[in-house]
Amino acid sequence: MRLSRVLLGLVAQAWVPAAFWVAAPLAAQLRPLDPLDWGILGPHANTVVVGSGFYAGQRASLAGTKGRLLELGAFRASWSLNRVALELSGTALRVFREESRFATPLPGVGPPEQHRREDTGDYRVSTIVQLTHPGSPEGVALRFGVRLPTTDDVRGLERDQTDFFTTLAGRLARGPWSVVGEIGLGINGTRDLRVGQVDPMLFALSASWDFGLFTGILAATGQHDTRPNPEFRGTEDLGEGRVGVRVGTAHWVDFSLVRGWTPTSPDVGLSVAFGVRF
After folding, report:
1. Within 10 Å of residue 170's Cβ, how many Cβ atoms?
2. Under a CB-based contact definition with an 8 Å cutoff, are residues 189 and 199 in contact?
3. pLDDT (tens digit, 9 = 90+) per residue, 1-10?
4. What does R_g of the chain's alpha carbons equal in angstroms?
5. pLDDT, tens digit (0-9, with 9 covering 90-100), for 91-125
6. 240 near 258, Cβ under 8 Å?
7. Is-contact 155 117, C-beta < 8 A?
8. Sorting pLDDT into bands at 50, 70 and 90, what band is 231?
9. Side-chain half-sphere of 187: how many Cα atoms within 13 Å?
């Protein structure tokens, strides 16, 4: 019951910013950590998901520009060992079209080619450990991992830095609906000589309702630096609200609308992904 009250409290605090994805202006480093997918835990829970997304009003902070971002080949592959899951995720290609400038580029960031910047996305390796009994409607899981330095500083879309993250997630399921709340810490390297790293608080909240063939999903995710310092470019606060629907069970397709509520998150976005569980 205590876990139930905590999760319901998290829903109440995050529901308002997530619900205003159609009304509030928002604006992105590029994308925050995705909320934990509890479906990758348990027997026969190996999954592969591949998709793409388009985001308008996206900031490329290092380049000092704002424009449209196209993500191609966004993927997530997980291998389940019942209470432990290993996950590899990332984005094969990012294509950014500059539309306006809000700051001068950081040193080392090259110019675009005809207002266009391309780079591979960030890649993450993570482990998820379920701390409670599998199959219980109330559960707790620990997630930790590393973001690999695969991007190019010259491209100006992401930092060529190694980041670490860890989160603690709690889940409550009742009949057709479930809620997952998540909070943790990131350790992000910076491009600023004044500070070597930024340690933001990571947070996520997702709620889903199973209609059988269709599953409705509402989520909010982001990061926030709790120190009273100015934001360092490339490690700014992030926040996104997402509303989507999943069609299918063992094989499915996800459609999601995205709305950011921080200056460095996209104004609006749309993503589609295809998944299979085996």
Report:
1. 20
2. no
3. 444 443 334 3
4. 18
5. 999 999 999 999 999 988 999 999 999 999 889 99
6. yes
7. yes
8. confident
9. 8
Token duo for residue 131: 């701390």
What is the widest separation between alpha-carbon atoms in the chain? 57
Distance from C-alpha of 169 to C-alpha of 38, rounded to nearest angstrom: 9
- Interatomic CA distance for residues 205 and 212, integer angstroms: 22
**Of 14-28, 91-105, 212-226, 228-242, where does mean pLDDT reach its minimum?**
14-28
CB environment 192-226: b (16+ within 10 A), e (fewer): eeeeeebebebbbbbbbeeeeeebebbbbbbbebe
Return d(Cα 150, Cα 161) in angstroms, integer: 8
> What string of DSSP letters covers 81-134?
-BSEEEEEEEEEEEEEEEEEESSPPPTTPPPPSSSEEEE---EEEEEEEE-S-T
Q: Is-contact 216 195, C-beta < 8 A?
A: no
Which pLDDT value is given to residue 197? 85
Both tokens assigned to 5:
């009250």
Angle at 108 between CA 119 and CA 200, to 5 degrees: 70
Cα–Cα distance for residue pair 48/278, rounded to 1 Å: 9
The predicted structure's pLDDT at residue 17: 35
